[in-house]
């Protein structure tokens, strides 16, 4: 099987690992399953996740981490782009910039373009060097000047791509505005709806399946969110094991229509292991 595993709420909650889950994933990998980690978080670079996951003992390599920023970069650099995207304006954190550069894209940051615009008295399109696309993720240093540059570029015809549309994200101090809040600001200013890559849109999981070199028929989603993980799995027609270790309760899942419910639910690592065993058996494993 190909396990598409969400991170926060599944492998860890904030700084704390969820007991036993890493051991279950390591066991599945030892038995021949492919584990790919998928997250809507666009701020961090793959190597950051590898360091953290490896420190927990999880089976992981850099090519088995697909964040929304990496999936966005692969999407923009892919053969489906016609005309091709070569230069992008990145509104986001360092992870988004690095993933775009890794994919072979010429990147100008919104901070650089905003500074140039102010110094030279030119519009954002000129300041950014006529980008083919504007990509927007979570930017803790977001400013009105960055917003103005992004809107200028979209008005000039640059493609508008969102890493994800999560309005908030969880922290140890409660929720904070997410990438979706910044995407919404650019959308309101430009009056253009972006292509969204992250869950619940299917593109993040599609990119993860492609990176793994396997087929959709082999994929299983392991996640904790109804509106993200489960919705994305349902959209692709793949089963989802819903972990009740994060943001969703059993009652919330059971309130869904029968045809939208997860294939299994797991309160802990033992129930996750049992659910994956059952799914593997139904696939002739």
Question: What does the model show?
Answer:
With 285 residues, the chain is α/β, with parallel strands linked by helices. It folds into 2 domains: 2-40 and 200-282, 3-Layer(aba) Sandwich (Rossmann fold); 81-196, Rossmann fold. Helix content is 42%, strand content 20%. It has 12 helices and 15 strands. The strands form 4 sheets. It has a 6-stranded parallel beta sheet, sandwiched between helices.
How is this fold's topology laid out?
Elements: E1 2-5, E2 12-13, E3 16-17, H1 21-30, E4 34-39, H2 46-56, E5 65-67, H3 68-77, E6 87-91, H4 94-102, E7 106-109, H5 110-120, H6 124-127, E8 133-136, H7 144-155, E9 159-162, E10 168-171, E11 174-177, H8 179-190, E12 195-196, H9 203-212, E13 219-223, H10 226-236, E14 240-243, H11 250-254, E15 264-266, H12 269-282
Parallel strand pairs: 1-4, 1-13, 4-5, 6-7, 6-8, 8-9, 9-12, 13-14, 14-15
Antiparallel strand pairs: 2-3, 10-11
Helix pairs in contact: 3-4, 3-9, 5-7, 7-8
The helix content is 40-55%
**So what's the CATH class of the largest domain?**
Alpha Beta
What structural class is derived from the secondary structure elements?
A: alpha/beta
Rounded to an integer, what's the Rg over CA atoms? 19 Å
Total DSSP helices: 12
Low-confidence stretches: none
Kindly report the name of the CATH homologous superfamily of the largest domain: HAD superfamily/HAD-like
- The count of strands amounts to 15
Q: Write the CATH fold name of the largest domain.
A: Rossmann fold
Total domains = 2
């Amino acid at each position: 099987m190909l396990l598409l595993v969400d991170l926060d709420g599944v492998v860890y909650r904030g700084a704390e690992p969820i007991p036993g889950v890493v051991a279950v994933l390591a066991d599945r990998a030892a038995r021949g399953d492919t584990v790919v980690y998928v997250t809507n978080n666009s701020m961090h670079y793959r190597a950051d996740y590898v360091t953290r996951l490896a420190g927990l003992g999880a089976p992981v390599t850099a090519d088995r981490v697909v964040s929304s920023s990496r999936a966005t970069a692969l999407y923009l650099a892919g053969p489906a782009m016609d005309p091709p995207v070569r230069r992008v304006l990145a509104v986001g954190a360092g992870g988004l910039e690095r993933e775009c550069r890794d994919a072979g894209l010429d990147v100008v940051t919104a901070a650089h373009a905003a500074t140039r615009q102010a110094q030279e008295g030119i519009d954002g399109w000129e300041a950014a060097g006529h980008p083919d696309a504007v990509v927007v993720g979570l930017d803790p240093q977001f400013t009105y000047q960055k917003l103005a540059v992004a809107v200028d570029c979209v008005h000039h015809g640059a493609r508008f791509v969102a890493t994800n549309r999560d309005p908030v994200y969880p922290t140890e101090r409660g929720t904070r505005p997410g990438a979706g809040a910044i995407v919404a600001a650019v959308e309101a200013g430009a009056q253009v709806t972006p292509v969204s890559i992250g869950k619940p849109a299917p593109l993040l999981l599609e990119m993860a399946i492609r990176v793994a070199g396997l087929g959709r028929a082999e994929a299983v989603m392991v996640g904790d969110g109804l509106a993200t993980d489960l919705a994305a799995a349902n959209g692709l027609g793949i089963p989802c094991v819903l972990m009740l270790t994060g943001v969703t309760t059993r009652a919330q899942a059971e309130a869904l229509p029968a045809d939208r419910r997860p294939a299994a639910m797991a309160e802990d690592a033992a129930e996750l292991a049992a659910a994956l065993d059952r799914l593997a058996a139904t696939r002739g494993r």
